[in-house]
Amino acid sequence: MAQEHQTPPDVPTAQIDTGVATPARMYDYYLGGKDNFAADREAAEKVLRNMPQVRAFARANRAFLGRAVRELAARGISQFLDIGIGLPGPGGTVESALAAQPAAHVVGVDNDPIVLAHARARPADDKAGAVTIVRGDLRDPAAILADPQVRAVLDFDRPIAVLLIAILHFVNEDADPRGIIRTLMDAVVPGSFLAVTHVTGDFDPARLEVSAQAYEQSTASLTVRSAKEVGAFFEGLELLDPGVVLLPHWRPEGPVQADADSIWMYGAVGRKD
Predict the structure, then answer these.
(1) Does the pLDDT at position 108 exceed 90?
(2) Is 112 in contact with 85 (CB distance < 8 Å)?
(3) Each residue of 20-30: pLDDT tens digit?
(4) DSSP code for 83
(5) Span of 81-90, 165-174, 222-231, 237-246 with lowest mean pLDDT
């Protein structure tokens, strides 16, 4: 049986504010999930009216996650720290990691109470790995790294894949995203990896600005960044080929989708030497 580390008991469902949209629940709506509320759907529909292809963004992001996890597992990585893990669903980090590496240890971190409530209700499976979902905020990486549940599942003396999938665009410059990444990557040993996906305004900044405004009514505002800015997150790391590219172009496992160049999200993976 998989070792199941429970989320803290101090995450009551009553803390879930269904009247304010959250990025995790909006993302769930884009993917066609059911773990969202009227406020999430209203905010998401504002984005979709301006940019109908956002559903394709979400699907491409989930597909990138699966490819990245499989690539890292093929390189011997069996530990994954996914900050901003979001709601569970097909092709998510836990499913992908355990499919690629049945003995994988996965820690998911999120600050959305509904994500934690789902994790607490999730039954153990019959794999040999260990999975836990903990409360935390990317903007306080030191607290995440010090969390005893994180330390109970992940061995920081062995390589870890740090996954920042569709979360850094919710961290503005005042929060020092590059400093956050340095703190995380300084804590892991050589041979560890960083995987990032990020929305960009490189192709149609005006439309992205309108879509970003829809997130102002959610719990996190949206900051779009250029390819150069996303590449700066990997300072000191060795980027895997093909570098920082639009998601469908990162190590596709089949023909690249026809709308690949309209998926305005970058993805990249880097290795710590």
Answers:
(1) yes
(2) no
(3) 898 889 999 99
(4) E
(5) 81-90
**Which residues share a beta bridge with 168?**
none
Q: Concatenated DSSP letters for 159-215? A: --EEEEES-GGGS-GGG-HHHHHHHHHHTS-TT-EEEEEEE--SS-HHHHHHHHHHG
User: Cα–Cα distances in Å, from 112 out to 20, 79, 168?
Assistant: 11, 23, 16
Of 10-14, 62-66, 70-74, 192-196, which gets the smallest average pLDDT? 10-14
What's the length of the chain?
273
Where do runs of H (alpha helix) occur along the chain? 23-30, 38-50, 54-74, 93-100, 113-121, 141-146, 148-153, 177-186, 205-214, 227-232
Tokens of 23: 């990025």
Structure tokens at 66: 């699966």
Domain 3-251+261-271 is found in CATH 3.20.20.60: no
Side-chain half-sphere of 7: how many Cα atoms within 13 Å? 25
- Answer whether 47's CB lies under 8 Å from 211's CB: yes
Task: Give yes or no for a contact between 109 and 132, defined as CB atoms under 8 angstroms apart.
Answer: no
